[in-house]
Amino acid sequence: MSYVADPTLQTNFLYAELDKLTAKLAQKDHQLTTLREHIQWLEEQLRLSRYKRFASSSEKQSPDQVTLFDEAEQLQDETSEQESDTTATTVMAHQRKSRKPRIPEDWPREQIIHDLAEADKVCPHDGTYLVHIGDEIHEQLDIIPAQIKAIAHVRRKYSCPCCEKYIVTATKPKQPIEKSIATPNLLAHVVISKYADALPLYRQVSMFKRIGVELNRTTLANWMIQCGQLVQPLINLLAEAALAQPVVHMDETALQVLNEPGKSPESQSYMWLLLTTGHQPVVYYHYHSRRHADVPEQLLGDYHGAVMVDGYDGYQSICQKNQLTRLGCWAHARRKFIEAQKSQPKGKAGKADQALAYIQKLYAIERQVKDKTVDERLKIRQTQAKPIIDKLKSWLNKTLQHTPPKMALGKAVHYLHNQWERLVGYLDDGAYPIDNNPAENAIRPFVIGRKNWLFANSQSGAKASANLYSLIETAKANGLEPFSYLQRVFTLLPNAQSLADIEALLPWQLAHHDNYLASTEV
Fold it and tell me: N or C: which terminal CB in the chain sees fewer CB atoms within 10 Å?
């Protein structure tokens, strides 16, 4: 008799085999999807590598797009165009001459008269003596090379000729560094050369030597530290003024300090930035040995307002503790989509272009409301920017579901998703900024300087650098010429007798009263 299998058992067996095959197929599909994504990622990395190697490093999008820069830490040295009164600039289908440098009317002038010889002042036609009818004037810029002079402080001494017991000596103003050969002018020159012009001290030593002055780098470094300590009362006032504003910007960048307790010379310390814009702008640098959440807590204290920062998690603790409004930076979101755009196949538009089109519209609106009042800005944002934000949100929700997070587009999309509530916060108040570019622009002078002098030797040197950068950049933000400002500070601050005397040296105070301190661009 032949064997007949149980139909039920046979069916169960077949279903079990089907489940196994289905599971294997799903596993193969997953492996295939993973491999495809990895291939796409490798192709993307190859395109990005080629782009970074051969393409322009700028973020050019559109001529009417607000200029946004890469992270300050990643900026490459830019080659500036030589400005000349004879060069020509190509514009579309025509050329126009570059604007000549403007020489301010109030600058001192020296006239060199080029006249005709007496024999040439006679008309060749009828012998009549020529009459002066006018002049052709061509102005040039000249420079007076640095000059060094010695200043002798002579303190007169007097005594009573009768009793010969009473002797009195005339006083002299206190100096920024007592018993030093450096005047306020010389100190201001060295500070500006290092921190505003990014000239390392060893180069300044060579420059001084060329004009016959023998100084060494240790002396100059000690001067910088003492100047940084001298201006500490002003720095404290800058920090207080910043925290009195409703909105502050924050950022940080790395700094190498060679001799730091408990750390190796190769380890990284940080320069933190606290910045405000508006009527009395403040650019406040703060040195700290690490990048940690307790640093913004220390800087902000009991501040209650809005903070514009990047996506660094270290800011979240103080935001929760003080119930701060944390604003997100659209410039950071935009950069990530630009990276995704660069990774697209050449000549092919993609989803990154779609996101950038939305963001570009937001910045176009910001350009329109730049000079509006806070209330007007809020109204325009609500009526014009919010509908664009809503469309971008709808686009984001659809794109998020189908974009691998490992890809450049995926990173951009997930960053936008994770930062969304912070990014759209600027719609709630006309005083809120759309991005953290002011902070990145303010920290750039430090980054440029760091590329030249590379590191700080000690904690005291790093702290002095923070203080001096703070004064220079705040002076510039308030429209002051930084050398003249530091010259005034180093002269008057040592002789300050009260808090009012120190407050009178704040950049916005001098900007109101001293026109000669105003910055002039040529």
Answer: N
